[in-house]
């Protein structure tokens, strides 16, 4: 069943720039969907429509919540990971990861258990008590992923999350994200410039082009068959 449906949605900005031509796209539950294309083709704009951070100029975006109710982005159902990990520098890693649970009023003991689980998922258990400045760029990104997953979101939205990392770190995070997704199957929309990342990670790739931003191709990646 669908997680989010974009229906003939377009985007014209206040200055008259057309960011997106009208387009339709359905993200299915459990998809790992990558948006790929050149700079300025509307990847971030399309992601922000799916995140309810911006409204389409025309058309609609619908979120599935046991039935379409047209409401999204309440911060619990959708989680974000951006290129800059945006951790609170004064707070320990465990406190950073716990922030969305604190904001949601989850009781301390339950929150701590979920934080521990999220940190284990991304391989950061041993750094729970560290501060962000004591972590490498890749580790900070892992913490950011843990913070996004700790609320068990319906959908994870990632905008070039590994774009600022060196290639070795990036490849390692790609591999770990793939393994994590295979275990958990959280619905993911992933913006990237990298064809390698898109092919490596995705169940579906949506290829976009610019002037105006639009979808030019959708590619389904068949699931590998279990061996033995
Ligand atoms: P991408 O993420 O693929 O690089 P964007 O979605 O950021 O592309 O941008 C799509 C197009 O919309 C580009 O031409 C960009 O310059 C333009 N654009 C994006 N945001 C705004 C804005 N707030 N106001 C005006 N134009 C914008
Ligand atoms: P990205 O999509 O890679 O995250 P940005 O959000 O910085 O990159 O912007 C993408 C493009 O949109 C850039 O070309 C930028 O100049 C353009 N853009 C962003 N905000 C505006 C704006 N308010 N007005 C015009 N162009 C914008």
UniProtKB/TrEMBL annotation:
Keywords: ATP-binding, Nucleotide-binding, Transport. The keyword ATP-binding applies. The keyword ATP-binding applies. One of its GO terms (molecular function) is ATP hydrolysis activity. Residues 4-228 form the ABC transporter domain. Belongs to the ABC transporter superfamily. This is ABC transporter ATP-binding protein. It comes from Lichenibacterium ramalinae.
């Amino acid at each position: 069943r669908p997680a989010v449906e974009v229906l003939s949605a377009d985007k014209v900005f206040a200055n008259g720039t057309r960011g997106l031509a009208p387009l339709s796209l359905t993200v299915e539950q459990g998809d790992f969907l990558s948006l790929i294309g050149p700079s300025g083709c509307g990847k971030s704009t399309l992601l922000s429509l799916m995140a309810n951070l911006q409204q389409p100029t025309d058309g609609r975006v619908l979120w599935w919540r046991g039935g379409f109710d047209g409401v999204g982005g309440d911060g619990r159902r959708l989680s974000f990971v951006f290129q800059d990990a945006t951790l609170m520098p004064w707070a320990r890693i465990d406190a950073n990861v716990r922030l969305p649970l604190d904001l949601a009023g989850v009781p301390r003991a339950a929150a701590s258990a979920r934080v521990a689980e999220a940190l284990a998922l991304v391989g950061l258990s041993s750094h729970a008590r560290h501060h962000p400045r004591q972590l490498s760029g890749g580790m900070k990104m892992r913490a950011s992923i843990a913070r996004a997953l700790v609320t068990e979101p319906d959908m994870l939205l990632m905008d070039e999350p590994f774009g600022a990392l060196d290639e070795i770190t990036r490849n390692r995070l790609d591999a770990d994200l793939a393994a994590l997704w295979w275990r958990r199957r959280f619905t993911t929309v992933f913006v990237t410039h990298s064809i390698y990342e898109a092919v490596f990670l995705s169940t579906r790739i949506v290829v976009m082009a610019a002037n105006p931003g639009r979808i030019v191709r959708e590619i389904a990646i068949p699931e590998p068959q279990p061996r033995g």
